[in-house]
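Please go through the sequence and fold tokens given here and tell me how the chain folds. Record follows.
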Amino acid sequence: METGQRYAGLRDREYFHIMLNLDSFDGFLPVARSLAQGYLDAARKLQADPNLEPELRSFRYSKEAFEARLDDIYQGLVEDVTRYEAAQSWTMRTREDVVEWVLQMAPFNQTDGAWLRTIAPVGPIDEVRSLLFAIYVDEMGGGDPDLNHPNIYTDLMASVDLELGDLRSREYSDNPALLDSAFTVPLFQLVVSQFPQDFFPELLGMTQYLEWSSVELKNMVRLNEHFGLDPHFYEMHVAIDNAATGHGAMARRAVELYLEGVRVDAGEEVMQDQWERVWNGYVAFSTTGTLAQEMAKRNRRRPTAAETVAAMVRDRAAKARLNHGTRRLAGTPLNDLFADPPRLMDSLVQGGMIVPGDPDGSPFFTLLTPDGPMYRIFTAADIEIWRTWTRSLAPGTPGDVAGVAGVAGAAAPAASVAQQMVRLVDAMRSRQEGTPAHGGEALAGPDPVDASVQVTKPVAWWFTQPAPALLAALANKENGWVVPGDAEASAFVTDLVRGHNAMGRALSAQSPYGSAWAEIAVAWINDGCPQPEAAPAVRPLTLLSPPERVAAHPTGQIHGSGSVH
């Protein structure tokens, strides 16, 4: 058996164990590199998601822009701290909740500092690496076991009677009390740090995220004090990671020194390329994994049909992702979708395989019959759960629709024509992927990051931006596609919306508003291309975000682990 096949399809907890015992697993390094690249690629793809919070969106580097972004992030976290009350915390309302969090964060906090474990090379060292190594030395306690961060966390665990055994043992990684997702971010930092030369820019960004965001841990201090738990681990991080002179400031200086050195040696554009990698490391560390979402949802209720379907997909993913060749679903290779069950479920809807509310009319279920290619993949009970989930997607049906990515089939509230156009753009995103014309045709419009600047980008690029940005570009008369106020004089309508082409067919479909998408586009142009009201800026949620901010967030999605510790 080839090495890659031997290690294929393992769970994150198993990979975590291997990385902590690497000498005992021959041939794993290529797998580790592939895992690292996969996490980083996912973060890069996430940054193209128009629903991503502005705080995590990439931007062109300058020292001033970088420091302004960091200041915005820091001030937002400070605001959360000032509004937080332990007795009303959103996800951790009881002592048991806090203890459970201590348990699930053990794999990460007992490997605290691991992302920098290989940062110092043999031989001479520059100032950038010296700064990072100094942070690592502090994480390890500078030779004093009492100051070692993993030791301090282990003491916290012991104080609440949590004993998981030797970190490197099978007993630890196989412990059923630990969620699989508890090992994802620890694994991420281990595999990236295994290749410090190849992923040095990303390690800089990872350091910036972890060390800059610790101010929010003041809430964990309050929470632990409220329930009579030892707050020392969190107090220590608030102090040592401070943004003025601590690890936060050291990380910022390391990033700035590194990028200035690249600019001097190789020029502005090479420096910007390196900056994109630094920022991607920042985003990857803050968004990788699903632990926060799982912790937020954990309670004593029975799982919904959507959650059960997702679990079935996840259980079969290791084999299923190897069996679908080049088939695509909603524009994405089907094999790739098995890494994200909710997205696969949403794609089944978007791709027409699941008809919301109508299992009998859904082509998916014909695949499960004796004549179908998926016969006996699911038991009769499993299939009934699939059918229950499909029925739950009917307009107006509460519950399970929230368990998948997207809101396929959800009833739409009354909306202005501008809001309807936003929905149109969002509905067409997946359908337009890979369209050759969208890669070649360009639109000029206001830069989504800085509206005072005009940019010219392919239509495909505009579809990766928030819908209002694409609509502003489409309404720009300089592009020659739209004459605001006159749909009949607009080539967008005469050549595309009403054309015998893929766009015309797509827009002829019924919208949730009782008319075809094409009619909405025509009405929007005739109304003078009104732009949707700017949505209030939203910041990423964490497990410690105040309840009112959680309630106001448009998606309620918590990225990654939901906390730096």
Summary: The chain has a mean pLDDT of 86. The longest strand covers residues 442-446. Residues 305-398 form one domain.
